[in-house]
Write a structure and sequence with these properties.
CATH topology of the largest domain: Rossmann fold
Largest sheet: 7 strands, parallel
Helix content: 25-40%
Number of strands: 14
Structural class: alpha/beta
Strand content: 15-25%
Distance between the termini: 39 Å
CATH architecture of the largest domain: 3-Layer(aba) Sandwich
Low-confidence stretches: none
Order of helices and strands: EHEHEHEHEEHEEHEEHEEHEHHEHH
Number of domains: 2
Length: 303
Amino acid sequence: MHVFVTGASGWIGSAVVTELLVAGHEVLGLARSDRSADAVATLGAKVHRGSLDDVESLRAGAVQADSVVHLGYHHDFSQMELAARLDRSAIDAFGDVLAGTGGPLVIASGVAGLGGGELVTERDTPDPASHVRVANAAAALALADRGVRSIAARFAPTVHGPGDHGFVATLVDLARRHGFSGYIEDGANHWPAVHRLDAAVLVRLAVESAPAGSVLHAVDEEGVPTREIAEAIGRSIGVPARSVPAAQAGEHFGWLGGFFGMDCVVSSAITRDLLGWKPERPGLLAVIDAGGYADVAPHAQTG
């Protein structure tokens, strides 16, 4: 297939581009900047200059392909409404281009916040009013009625691996600054996780064979207790792990406190059966213990 990928130079996107190319697909990657364009070209993909806030550039990229993987997102916590609006306009544009073709449109969504500690499966349908990104995923899935092979891939909050600058890297940075690795209350709440390279395989399988209207879970470990995450971080950088009272979580963890305090347990059994997906890479604790986050600084977050 000829696949147009947004977010092609990003943490997940760059792995997806490589996975698609190795499998023999042609890839056209969206790039907003010269730096992103160089990164996409280095991966071996063709470059399409444009951005998420330029709908015509998105359409122009999609018409050159027969499938779309939409991983790009405006990750600025101070502009959540703008991010959601850009995401929805991109989904609508891709739907218009692919309508009636049966071509796949794989969009990224998430599992964070689902379930409240109860096991979540692919068949669980969150209320679109609960979060704008949930509503956008529902809109993408509805494109199946227009002849689009639309697929929503719900990613674990931690897509880990050496070089990750996301949530876990932020927890490591906080542990260094505070002198201990914190978890909230007893740390019995859970974070699902998946290795970046396993997630890339799932996206490739989705492009190749997932049925229209599919909800997939890019989750390997159903839920890693946050205390165990904090303890692994502590071991990796030589600081103790310690409980942080819930009332102080916002002060200690900042913007990350709300995420790290969630209790989220997620199954991917349906996804595995549907696509034959078999995650093979190390789990989150193994990556931390192996030093995968010891020297990584988090990307700046706003909001």
